Amino acid sequence: MAKIEAPELTGKIITPKVKTGASKDLKVFLAKPELMTKVSFPSEKPADWKEKFIENFGVILNKYKSVRVFLDICVRCGACTDKCHFYLGTGDPRNMPVYRQELMRTVYRKYFTTGGKLFGSLGAAQEITDELLDEWMTYFYQCSECRRCSVFCPYGIDTAEITMAARELLDSIGMGSKYNLEIVNKAETLGNNLGMPGPAIRNTLDFVEEDIKEKSNVDVKLPMDVEGADILFVTPSADFFASPHIESLAGYAKVFHQAGASWTMSSYASEGGNFGMFIGNYNHMKAINARIWKAARELKVKRVIVGECGHAWRVLYAFSNSLNGPFDFLDSRYRVPQHICEYTLDLIKRGALKFDKTANDQFSVTYHDSCNVARATRMGETPGDQFTIPREIIRTVCNKFVDMDADTIGDRTFCCGGGGGTLTDELIDIRVKGAMPRMQALKRVKDSHNVNFFALICAICKAQFTKVFPYYGIDMEEVGGVHQLVSNAIILGAKEGI
Amino acid sequence: MNGLSSVINLLAYVAATIFVLGFLNKVVLYFKTPSPLKIATTPAPTNSVGVVLRLVPEVLFFRSLLRGGTAEKILWVGGWFFHVSFLLIILRHLRMFVYPVPGWIMSFQQIGIWAGLIFPIALLILIVRRFTNDRLAVISLFQDYFVLLLIIAIGLTGLLLKYFVRTNLVDVKSFILGLFSVSPAQVPASPLFLIHFSLVLILLVYFPFSKLMHAWGVLISPARAQADNPREVRNVAPWAQ
Predict the structure, then answer these.
(1) A329-373 pLDDT, tens digit each
(2) Which residues contact B232 (CB under 8 A, 6 or more apart)?
(3) Residues in chain A closer than 8 A to B224 (CB atoms)
(4) Per-domain residue ranges of chain A
(5) Which of A18, A123, A150 is the closest to B135 by Cβ?
(6) Chain A residue whose CA is closest to B57
(7) CATH architecture of the region A33-176
(8) Which of A227, A331, B60, B81 has the most neighbouring CB atoms within 10 Å?
(9) In this structure, how many other beta carbons lie within 10 angstroms of the beta carbon of residue A135?
(10) Are the beta carbons of B224 and B58 closer than 8 angstroms?
């Protein structure tokens, strides 16, 4: 593979001129037949794939109002064209949301609209062909389902819905992404995306316990599979494995410890993430999500709290009540589920946690709103609390905090460039380029405020940024979780016995 | 009644029927298609009153467009003045549809004339931006130009009728009232009027089969019209049960 050149850091986000085909060669690896079979998709493209494709397309149109309405009502006004980080990073017109959608819309017209049937190519209606499928496979895996386009669309058209439907259609005729389907398979068979067995997770938890003990001389426990605990805590499995994720794991544990909470994790439901969402498959999403609620029932907990992960929070917050609810077996006094940031800030407000802010004085901190948290969920009571709650926590535990430019945070935040099932090595080129808008915004606060800690609450963002920061000449150590900052500053033990 | 009048009257009823049934068909289809998951683009209101309050500025002021950059500001000017002047022109036209003409319709006459002049300018902005901006040039399709040109043609023939090739309004009104009272009357002896009128019929027929359905879609788009309350209210599609 050719050497990957990161865009120059200038602090400016400039909309590129259209460069047709600029990212046409950046493709995900196809899943092998055995893997396709394991996740209940056709092992390969059947001889009558065209009929199957059209039939399945019709099924999706009848199942999802979003897809049907969005395909009909786009006026191609162009408001979305320069809003996608992958377009800004590559200039490939297929990464303009409307033109990505056009890959599906053109086929939709051909088989499902009067105009397309009557006027064919004059009305931009195309038959589905192998070549077009190939383009689908390329560009619907260059979308991170981040929903930024939806914010600026006059009708809220959400490309994520189209991308999910496209991936579902591709899977249904035997064309899947190896990366995404391997993870779906691991989550369904082993309980987490990394395929870590329970004992390996226990080892990590022991390590974190020992580490905390060594540094602070306090016995903070990270319990697993404790029946009768009050709280089931579910977090992305990267927290058990990757850096800097594991630092936040210590942070959650310290918060629970100081709160005197009875909590547990589950070796059966050891994953908050849910790649069923990324591939737009309702059944897989439901099956992966079901493990969490099964664990909650079996461990007889009263509430469920979710760790730092963007799409995990989306599935749990927005979808799980539909998928596997109702949750009337849990304590109705608590929101189901709850985000760890909601929980931590609530404790802070009640004065239950004490901090030494100077512990974070070597850091000048900014906060990156992860797309799924920002545009697909809420925390707290009031719309927009998903922006204020993590920032309030940071301000409580750090002295130096600054926000990036207003048009790059909140609901206008930029994707990290690795979300929505694109966090795979074969896409590293576009991941580096897709991170460009975020990196430029970061560059500005680095210049103005010497920012050296990039705080966030998403496992995919953490993995993506630690990987791409070096391409931009920034130390990967600058990436970290909000609860990593909490972990640094929290004063342990002071409240013991109360 | 001559043969031409019979044909035009018949076509008017056919076009109106296609418009109404086609539109209703889409409305029913959208209504019947379930939303299995809550997908409001957040921050979103948490109840239905809030949803209405979210949609009103979207419909009246194209709020989301205003959040974009320069290209969207230009689009906003073209789009907003196009839609508002179109509405005012239609209101002005109502005096042709009813007898006697109520006072509130008369109050739109002067502003309707101004709107008629702004209308083609707004449309010009909308069409020029399609081939002057490199991104828009890529995404624009034949049908995008077709519908803009169709509406421009309706506007220009209307202006010609108003200012240059005036037609007998009594004839026009008796023809239109005839249509509405299902007692078909002679069409006015004005080729330009017949062109203007036929273009409107084409627009009516085209409407339900095209992107013009955004007029309804803006009200029901799941990303905007859903309340953000998934933790409180369980939402399950019939097919997912």
Answers:
(1) 999 999 999 999 999 999 999 999 999 999 999 999 999 999 999
(2) B46
(3) 155-156
(4) 33-176, 184-489
(5) A18
(6) A154
(7) Orthogonal Bundle (1.10)
(8) B81
(9) 14
(10) yes
Inter-chain residue contact A81 with B135, CB threshold 8 Å? yes
Residues of B with CB below 8 A from A156's CB?
A: 41, 64, 221-224
| Distance in Å, alpha carbon of B229 to nearest chain A alpha carbon | 8
Full 3-state SS string of B121-133: HHHHHHHHHHHHC
**Across the strands, what pairs with A367?**
A455
Residues of chain B with pLDDT > 90, as a percent, come to 97
Separation between Cα atoms, residue A386 and residue B134, nearest integer Å: 36
Residue listed under structure tokens 């289809």: B29
Question: For residue B66, what is the nearest residue in chain A, using CA coordinates?
Answer: A152
Cβ contact (<8 Å) for B43 and A322? no
Structure tokens at A252: 């959650």
Q: Which two three-digit tokens encode residue A48?
A: 């009558």
Interface test with B, best of A62, A73, A102 (most B CBs within 10 A): A73
The CA-atom distances, in angstroms, between B120 and each of A75, A480, B128 are 19, 55, 12
Q: Does residue A244 have a cis peptide bond before it, meaning omega lies within 30 degrees of 0? A: yes
Residue with tokens 């009048």: B5
User: What are the mean pLDDT values of chain A's consecutive 10-residue runs (498 residues total)?
Assistant: 83 98 97 98 97 98 98 98 98 98 98 92 93 98 98 98 98 98 97 95 97 96 98 97 96 97 97 98 98 98 98 98 96 96 97 97 98 98 97 98 98 98 97 98 98 98 98 97 98 66
pLDDT digits (tens, 9 = 90+) for B163-215: 999 999 999 999 999 999 999 999 999 999 999 999 999 999 999 999 999 99
Q: Which residues of A touch B211 (CB under 8 A)?
A: 72-76
- How close B132 gets to chain A, by Cα (Å)? 12
Strand A231-234: give its sheet, edge to edge: A263-264, A231-234, A303-306, A338-339
Report the C-alpha gap between A464 and A417 in whole angstroms: 7
Instruction: Please give the C-alpha separations between residue B222 and each of A156, A176, B25, B43, in angstroms, as whole numbers.
Output: 8, 27, 19, 14
The reply to whether residue B42 touches residue A375, judged by beta carbons under 8 angstroms, is: yes
Is any Cβ of chain A less than 8 angstroms from the Cβ of B58?
yes
Could you tell me which of A365, A331, A349, A367 has the C-alpha nearest to residue A458?
A: A367
